[in-house]
Amino acid sequence: MRRKAGILVASVFLSGALELSGGDGCMPEKEGGAPGEGNGEEAAKAEEAPKDTAAAKLTRLLEQLDLAAFLETSATLNLDRPSGDTNDYRAFDVKARSFQIDMLKLQLEKVPDESLPVGFRADLLFGEVAQFVGASGLGDADDSFDLEQAHITWRAPVGNGLDISFGKFVTMHGGEVIESWSHFNYSRGLLFTYAIPFTHTGIRTHYAFSPEFAAGLHLVNGWDNVDDNNKSKTVGTTAALTPFARTEGLLRSLSIGTNFMYGPEQDDENSHARTLLDLVVTWQPIDRLELLANYDYAEEEEVPVVVDLADGPGGPLDRSRDAQWYGFAFGGRYWICREKLALAARGEYFKDSQGVRTIGASEFDSSLGPSPSPPRGQVLRGVTITLDYRPWEFLILRPEFRIDWGSRKSFDGGREAHQTTVAFSAVFLLK
Fold first, then answer.
1. How many angstroms separate the Cα of 1 from the Cα of each of 107, 177, 183, 391, 394?
2. CB 205 within 8 A of CB 164
3. Partner of 90 at 20 to 30 A CA spacing, among 18, 82, 167, 184?
4. What is the H or E stretch that residue 391 is in?
5. How confident is the model at residue 44 (pLDDT cuts 50, 70, 90)?
6. Domain range summary for the chain, segments of one domain joined by +
């Protein structure tokens, strides 16, 4: 229900401000004598002409605002009963035997258009998910609230319109997003969790050259940080190709997206760069079937793998190495009953060659003992099956089965080589 509820206070304030702008003495008076003198016909026409009042201006602005709200709750059960009651290698569904409020999301947006080429987007998150996606420098790490997005966009009068956004925005990378209802499955995959960032803060551009091709550039602080953790910036590009957009054939919906990012991401380190390449392909060959493929490749220079707590990071006994991680995922959703009932599946593979993404650095205290070996790399795989039921357009119910396994005993503190979970998610949408 994209209505203007909740903006009454702003309406009163803006209405008063707009009225003042036309009658506070700031506008020059017309020449021609005292009030009442002059051409009578012009005065009559002015009375008959429709007035562009402050209320009318405000009404038009409010009509362009989109307000939406989303609520997701869930329950997850780990069938392996881990000793720590935690699901390993998950993005948000980390509790092994628990109900939870995943998120309450409030979204307000004004899209730039011909009448007003400036817009904005603000997304507020409350709940469990907010604790994991919060960017450093914006609140505490364990906050159950996050300003997921907050950016202003200007559509510059260049060709078809060049969008320039400034602020905080979700990443351009990946085949999945923070909001589960916007993709096939309830749980987020391994690539979403470990291969890519969640958000960026900076500036980005987007330009549609044609119905078949769009591209953009961005300059940001880095991965998941509002306050930059070093003195360098991260640069990137994005491109989307829909080669058959203006045809009527089977391939009309085929879309290919590529994203690239380069820059140093380590604290107080300005030269050890991280590189990320992301490829996403989507296709809907028939009305009832949606397909997705995602590939991510990343590498980073001189990542700490052994840290001596006695000397702190950067001490003489610390060790680092170049790191690499990559993976791919395939997913699909088939609508058994159109817009009511669907079955979705996802298969994925993720290799963390040096263990820097899924395990992290080995820590030790040289005053207490010898240096440990660096962490070993590992491979993680997963298969997810999700039933998607929508009894009404505002409600999504999704039971899900998922199994993950690794190249070694990586689950439950090294006790298990696999992990099996069942979950149930309910999403209420008001838009």
1. 11, 22, 21, 18, 10
2. yes
3. 167
4. strand 378-392
5. low
6. 77-97+159-430
